[in-house]
Design brief:
Number of strands: 12
Number of helices: 3
Helix content: 10-25%
Shape: extended
Largest sheet: 6 strands, antiparallel, barrel
Structural class: mainly beta
Radius of gyration: 23 Å
């Protein structure tokens, strides 16, 4: 198995073996339930849901496989060396301290923002009678090309996007409480759902 589903609890600090203070993100990773086994992937669910909050077709699927309804469903590539069973629990013990993971989540939404906050514009003059401190300045040339290029940085909706941070190190794991401590920050707000996978680039580098 190459990944787990989890929920961001928050950030804190721990001390490593050399006495250095390390900022970590606490994630409730699993337990995840195996819902379906396909040719190359396995479907897992996380965070139990109330039956009256699940749509009837999906609730019928859960009753058919005799598994409690889950709020989040995701597919991961299977581990060829392992056999899976429907209803089996996948826990945080698949990750060990020192492992590297890629964490995917939805970044915190910040609503409509101007260019200085969204794209770190320098801004206009602050004195000498200027009234355009944070406003949009020139956004294109005059005659040539005579238009605004597609993708030009402009004010607009900021955040609430799917983001992945790669090669984050696992500091420690608590199998009893299903907690995973990862060095640094991860995308998303508190109680936001996360996808935790084995690091692709770090693993390729070690194998190569």
């Amino acid at each position: 198995m190459t990944g787990l589903l989890g929920k961001k609890i928050g950030m804190t600090q721990v001390f490593n073996e050399s006495g250095e203070r390390v900022g970590v993100t606490v994630i409730e990773a699993g337990p995840c339930l195996v819902l379906a086994i396909k040719e190359k992937v396995v479907q897992i669910g996380f965070d139990l849901a109330k039956e009256n909050r699940v749509k009837k077709p999906l609730l019928g699927f859960f009753k058919k496989i005799n598994v409690a309804p889950c709020k989040v469903i995701k597919e991961f590539f299977k581990d060829a060396s392992k056999e899976y069973k429907v209803g089996e629990e996948l826990k945080v013990d698949m990750f060990k301290p020192g492992d590297y993971v890629d964490v995917t989540g939805i970044s915190i939404g910040k609503g409509f923002q101007g260019g200085m906050k969204r794209w770190h514009w320098q801004g206009g003059p602050e004195t000498h009678g200027s009234t355009s401190h944070r406003r949009v300045g020139s956004i294109g040339s005059s005659t040539t090309p005579g238009r605004v290029f597609k993708g030009h940085h402009m004010p607009g909706h900021m955040g609430a996007q799917k983001k992945t941070l790669q090669n984050l190190q696992v500091v420690s794991s608590d199998n009893q409480n299903n907690l995973l401590l990862i060095k640094g920050a991860v995308p998303g707000c508190k109680n936001g759902y996360l996808v935790i996978r084995e690091a692709k680039k770090k693993r390729a580098k070690l194998l190569g």
